[in-house]
Design goal:
The longest helix has 37 residues. The chain is elongated and about 75 Å long. 73% of the residues lie in helices and 0% in strands. It has twelve helices and no strands. α2 crosses α4 and α10 runs antiparallel to α12. This is ABC transporter permease. It is a multi-pass membrane protein. Its main location: membrane.
Length: 298
């Protein structure tokens, strides 16, 4: 058997062992299984929001405003008589669409830039590292406020703004991972074999460095949803015609004493989804890190 074939078989075997180990560690964590199930429910609700919503989220009924929970309105109605459950579900779809698109963009851009800088080294790495430092020097919410004020509201502007704010954290993490791995024996062997740098980076370094970035992406989904809600709460996010949790809380503040559900329901939605993504990210980190003990973990 050729050396190349032997290496390929070893890689497949190592991948299968690692996958079996992840599955075993996941089975040892019933709490994490519950988190994944709840996240699956959240994602399904986001995808099928128009089907799940029992009523039109924009339909107003001024005679039925600020109602309490009932069979017709599971979460009550808001200050314009709109069904809160339908608006929360449609708000979930809006937030998830923006957050997932943003994370995909920042994941691709940050991973590509960070891995290239770490592997290339020299002045290229120094320049990219300084650019990353500049973006990370500003608090993310301050930079987001400045950009959204400059660009204006809207879904596309929101995605563009959040991508600019968040790419640097992905690039920094990936750069550090590549710097730590690029002098490993398997990389030096690949160089000695005459493999091109781009092949070594794509086929050897990135698969071994990508998992911490995946964990960061999972956690950042919740952070992104929280940022979207914060900007909308401040009146700098999405237009009022689009259901969104932050704007729902802002609109319900005036009637909080008489109709607290206007604030409580979207607030609980933000808290729950953000917490689930944070727990999922920590769980992915635990089951993919061989040094993590199963006892005491989620």
């Amino acid at each position: 058997m050729s050396e190349t074939g032997t290496v390929a078989r070893i890689k497949i075997w190592q991948s299968n062992v690692r996958g079996a180990d992840w599955y075993y560690r996941l089975r040892q964590r019933p709490g994490l299984q519950i988190v994944f199930v709840l996240l699956a429910v959240v994602l399904i609700a986001a995808v099928f929001a128009p089907v799940i919503s029992p009523q039109d989220p924009a339909a107003q009924d001024l005679y039925g405003k600020n109602q309490w929970m009932s069979a017709d309105h599971w979460f009550g109605t808001d200050y314009l008589g709109r069904d809160l459950f339908s608006r929360v579900v449609c708000g979930l779809q809006t937030s998830m669409a923006i957050a997932v698109t943003t994370i995909v963009i920042t994941f691709v851009i940050g991973t590509a830039i960070g891995s290239y800088a770490g592997y290339k080294g020299g002045w290229v790495d120094n320049v990219i590292a300084r650019v990353i430092d500049v973006f990370l020097a500003f608090p993310s919410i301050i930079l987001a406020l400045a950009l959204v004020t400059l660009l204006g509201s809207g879904i596309l502007n929101m995605i563009f703004m959040l991508s600019i704010v968040q790419w640097a954290s992905f690039a920094r993490l990936m750069r550090g991972q590549v710097l730590a791995e690029k002098n490993a024996e398997y990389v030096l062997s690949a160089r000695a074999a005459g493999l091109p740098g781009w092949w070594i980076l794509l086929k050897h370094l990135m698969p071994n460095c990508i998992m911490p970035v995946v964990v960061l992406a999972t956690m950042d989904l919740g952070h992104t949803i929280l940022t979207i809600s914060t900007l909308s709460f401040l009146g700098l996010g999405l237009p009022p015609s689009i259901p969104e949790w932050g704007s729902m809380i802002n609109a319900g503040l005036d009637s909080m004493r008489t109709a607290p559900l206007n604030v409580i329901v979207p607030g609980l939605a933000i808290t729950t989804v953000t917490l689930l993504f944070n727990l999922a990210g920590e769980g992915v980190r635990d089951i993919t890190d061989p040094g993590t003990d199963a006892e005491g973990s989620l």
